[in-house]
Structures are given as C-alpha cells and as structure tokens.
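Before the break, one more example. Copy the sequence into your notebook; we will annotate it together after we see the structure.
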Amino acid sequence: MIRSKNATLLLSGLLVWGLIHARDKGELTPLLVKGQAYTAPFQAGERLRYEVNWKPLFILPDFKAGEINFEVGESQHEGRSAYTISMDAVSTGRLAEVANMEVRNRFESIIDRKSFQSYRILKKTRQSKHKRDMLTAFDYPKNSTWLRELDAGSDPPKQLRNQTITGIPGPLNDVISAFYAIRLHRLEPGREYALNLSDNGKVREMRVVAQKREKVETGIGKFDAVKLEAQGGIFSEGRSLRLWYSRDRLRIPVKFEADVKFGTLFGELIQIEAGSIGRRLIRVK
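Here is what the structure looks like once it is written out:
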C-alpha cells in the first residue's frame, strides 16, 4: 500500500513536471508588448550594408545579385519622437542578365522611439517595368490602417487602391521594422518569439525561433551569433527565412538566407557604421 502510494506521488510529480516544461517549450514571447518602452541597441546614423548572392536551383554557380543598405535616422510623427529606417535594394551583376530584371527598391519605415511600433511604411518598388508606390499608415487610436497604392509607371500615376482597414491587434511591425524589433531582445536558443507583421494590408503572426549559437565568419570579421528562423508573415508562400544575429551589444543581423522562387538568396554583412564602430570589406582587385 505504501509502495503504491509512493508510486502514485512519483507519477503525479512527473506529470506535473512534464506539463510545466511542455508549456514552457511552447510558450511564445511577444517581441513588442503594448504600453512597454524599450531601449534600442542602435541609434540614428547607423548604416548596415549587405552583399546579396543568388544560388539558382539549376546546376549553376552562385553569383552576386545585388546589395541592400539600411540606415537609421531621427524623425517625428505627430509630435512623438521616432526613427525613420530606410532600406535600399539594388540589383547588380548577373541578376539583370540571367533573370532579365533590374531592381531599384526603396522602403521607408517610421517607428516610435519608445514602443517601437510602426506608424507608417512607404514602399517604392522598381523592378524593370513594374513600378509601384504603396503607403501604409497605422492609426492606433482609431484602430484602423490606411493603405494607398499607385502605379508609378503610368503618366500620371494611376491609383490602384485607397482603402481603410478596421482592426489592429496590437503593436504592429512592417517588413523593415520587424528586423529591428528582433534586435531589442537578447534571443536565447530554444525560445520562440512572436510579433504582428503588417504587409500589403494584411496582418500575420510572424514567429521567430531561436535555434542555436554559431560562429559566423564574414568579410569584415567573425561574430558570435544566434541562428534564427522566421516562420510566417515574411513569405506568404511558406518559404523559409534564416537569420544570424550577433550576440554583442548591437545585436546586428550579420547573415541571412532566404528560400525564394528558383533558388536561394543569401546575404552577408560587408559594412557597419554605428557610432564609434566602423568596419567594411575592402576588395583587392
């Protein structure tokens, strides 16, 4: 009888332990919490530059596809201190030849300096003859999103969409500010994080899984990094995006890989300008 009672207590204890740890394993930590203020590891004037290469699905060597440049600036939004984060993506080299595509995209995101929620994003997409301007603005007090899209290739530009969408589930990120929201946290392997990503008038939950620590070697040095996988939100087709963020005080994305149509895009940090820190790749011809 005593043995039976002890066995029952032991099984009960193991069950409780299992439930607790199962809950911990599946727990999602939000990257942005409503009403909470954050301290950024970056500041106005920071510049990040990446070289992007493309590996086709076919038996072809990878080649340079272009460059992506990010820059953080100070701004104001309706009297509140904000950051403006700009991204310029430019195709170079063989991409234009192989894919018959020239890319000149510029995105500008305005985010709150304390809450880091996105206020608006302007996307100027220039891909050969495809030219679009899309402005999305988030009105949190009115619980609505306003979106306007223009065909910038027409003369005069033709309005394609002008709509107001009701419902904001919480602090939002856009496709640019999401990468900076990740930098607010020291991500630990084995943990899962989530944010509300708004793009093209739709809000999706983007999950970020911190997988493991790795040493990453780039043209400007070695970094102790944490490997992340972004699930949902970024690619509606369900393709994978993998990122490596440095584990130093800046928490900079130093490398990324993205499964895209007809191959894989992979990028590497080749230049940093962040306060007193400056590194860049020097090529010897």
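Residues 1-25 have pLDDT under 50 and may be disordered. The two ends are 83 Å apart (CA to CA). Try to locate both features in your own notes.
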